[in-house]
Amino acid sequence: MSDTYSLKNTDNKAAFAQGMKDGVPIALAYFAVSFSLGIAAKNAGLNPVQGFIASALCTASAGEYVGFTMIAASATLIETALATLVTNARYFLMSCALSQKIDSKMPFFHRFIVAHFVTDELFGIAINRKGYFNPFYSYGAILCSVPWWSLGTMLGVIAGNLMPLRLVSAFSVALYGMFLAIVIPPARKEKAVMLVVLASFVLSSIGYYLPVFASVAEGTKTIIITVIVSAAAALLFPHKDEEEAQ
């Protein structure tokens, strides 16, 4: 793609085809992760169609898992919305970064569609493209990967309904393993991340075991703990720019 923004058919077709190609490994990973999310959706009481729609509307593993957890805890709609918003707050920063590569003449509907599908993986491949961002590149990657995210969740719900209870419990643990795989490597490298993880464990335990918090809904506890830990981390361990770090 050239360094100047255009919507020529030749440029769009090439960008779309490259997006489809780059979306293949993302699709494979999405299917594996969303299958475990489907087990969580089943435990929350969702049927296969509801699980499919949930993943189609929320292409974020952590945010979707929090949503299923809030549903299972019988949280209110406001609590569920706030918890999901806080969990997915990092996408605000990704969208801001991606906006720097978007031409000012790009129509709104292109921005709207791309913004809805800003995920860690799709953002990663899009931000590394040279020149102005062509939305058709993301459309190709989205078309190749996102359906597998929704399909994996639906199949996870179906499998959860067919498998014995013990096997469903075993598959439910797989999702926790995924989060551990995400958290442990950076926690071993950075002290700040480790302290944040430990603080989350401590506050979660306090909120669960102390009688004074017994009347507080689980969804509200999750929101309060997330805000407290993230705010404390931002104040105590501010991210340094590359120039300051040198």
Q: What is the averaged pLDDT score? A: 79
Which oligomeric state applies? single chain
End-to-end gap: 35 Å
Number of strands: 0
Brief overview, please?
The chain has twelve helices and no strands. By secondary structure, it is an all-alpha fold.
Question: Topology, pairings included?
Answer:
Elements: H1 9-43, H2 48-57, H3 61-72, H4 77-87, H5 90-99, H6 108-116, H7 120-127, H8 135-162, H9 165-189, H10 191-209, H11 218-236, H12 242-245
Helix pairs in contact: 1-3, 1-8, 1-9, 2-8, 3-4, 4-11, 5-7, 9-10, 10-11
Word description of this protein:
This protein is an all-alpha fold. The chain has 12 helices and no strands. α1 runs parallel beside α8, α1 (9-43) crosses α9 and α2 (48-57) packs antiparallel against α8 (135-162). The longest helix has 35 residues, at 9-43. The radius of gyration is 20 Å and the shape is globular. The chain starts with 8 loop residues before the first helix and ends with a helix.
Features:
mainly alpha; 246 residues; globular
